[in-house]
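Hmm, how's this folded?
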Amino acid sequence: MKPLGAFLRCTGLSDPEEALAAVKSIGLDTIQVSKLDDSFYTPEGARRFGAMMDAAGVSATSVVIVFDGESYRDWKAVEDTVGFRPAALLEARLAYSRTCVDFAEGLGVGVVTVHMGLLPDDPSDPVYVRLLSSVRELAAYAEGHGITLSLETGQETGEQLARFLDRIPDHDVGVNFDLANMVLYRMDDPTSALKRVIDRVTSVHVKDGLPPDRPGALGRETRLGEGRARVKECLRILHESEFGGPLIIENYTWRELGTEPLDELRRAKEFVETALTEIGAG
């Protein structure tokens, strides 16, 4: 079975030591590292976090870049605040991204992921040009440190993302495929999008959700199997393509349901394990 893990922040615990222990307690030993306190993004901080992972018996498959000031409140907030779109913040965000790459290198982790921001359809759009330049620059830096930069999906269609990546032939930029984001942003059918970029997928966020119910809004995350992300079909596509990368459970449903984060992670873990068994991948 492909490595099954959890996005660390989905434990609902802010203390990284406690969060790592919680992941292990539900029978998982793989994580995607979410945003940590800034003190970790130094050589000493990387050694400290690496020691925490070793003590917990947990390993990381990737590090996620999350910028201060990003908001996912609604479409306008995403457009204005996420990724490399805010021109005034670009240099600071690229500098911070490089520290995340250095942190990943210190941990011995080979992939760093990021939301680049909503991608315009027109390649001549100045925002498109800025995103392309930023991703190319960061990919080159990551590559120089033995790291693959991987773009998280959802804020563009599968076709748009594939064409964007084709414009960076000099660097190997991957895809962190989020099953639900295509639905939450009403961007694409997850199975069609996955097939379009399957050869570039480095990791997968196993998540489900429903589309927006009004203009300008974003959709709502659901428990696995209760949304429209076609989770089982996507897992089947991954299996049939012989995808060997990690399946990372990203689950924040507890925020709306008022349930316990670890209970929701256990529920999601059981869903994925059952689905993988049903498709012959368990």
Remarks:
- The chain has a mean pLDDT of 97.
- The two ends are 5 Å apart (CA to CA).
